[in-house]
Specification:
- The chain is mainly β.
- It has one domain (3-142): Sandwich (Lipoxygenase-1).
- The protein contains 2 helices and 13 strands; from the N terminus they run βββββββββαββββα.
- It has helices spanning 94-99, 135-142; strands spanning 3-12, 18-23, 26-32, 38-45, 50-59, 67-68, 74-76, 80-87, 90-91, 101-104, 113-116, 120-121, 125-133.
- Strands 3-2-5-13-10-11 form a 6-stranded antiparallel β-sheet. Strands 1, 4, 8, 9 and 12 form a 5-stranded antiparallel β-sheet that branches.
- 22% of the residues are buried.
């Protein structure tokens, strides 16, 4: 059995937002975030030919957290910024952005959508990344 390290750095723009990280449906981290950067680090089994599903879940956002001015522009909002994702000390950067999907329903105001993820979670929902083990092979195939 080989271990692989996953590291995520996240930060909330304000309080009351909860971040949960799951790997293969097992919760690895769950906490109300502060405006301080949070490093989430854990090891997982890097078994050959194994599909892995990483989910980064935001909850706790309320409609009053988004302030819209008279012109329809958002003047204040709460969100979680994912600033770093690495596997085995290799920063995924653009690969994470290219491969991850963001599932959300605009905080209950629209139908559920599947969108590209660009680093900020502005709606309650899930950022999902599917990858395979061994991680180094997946990285080579996708970089």
């Amino acid at each position: 059995m080989n271990n692989c390290e996953l590291l995520i750095k996240a930060q909330a723009s304000d309080s009351d937002l909860c971040l949960e990280v799951k790997l293969n449906n097992q919760t690895k981290f769950k906490k109300i975030l502060s405006t301080e950067s949070e490093s989430i680090k854990f090891l997982f089994d890097d078994t050959d030919d194994c599909k892995q599903i990483l989910e980064i879940i935001m909850s706790g956002k309320q409609s009053e957290h988004t302030v819209i001015d008279e012109d329809g522009n958002i003047s204040k909002d709460r969100m979680i910024k994912i600033s770093h994702v690495s596997l085995d000390q290799i920063e995924l950067g653009q690969l994470f952005t290219d491969q991850a999907i963001y599932l959300h329903d605009f905080n209950g105001t629209a139908e559920k959508i599947q969108a590209k993820f660009f680093g900020n979670m502005g709606c309650n929902g899930t950022v999902r990344l599917e990858f395979s083990s061994p991680v180094y092979v997946w990285l080579l195939e996708n970089m």
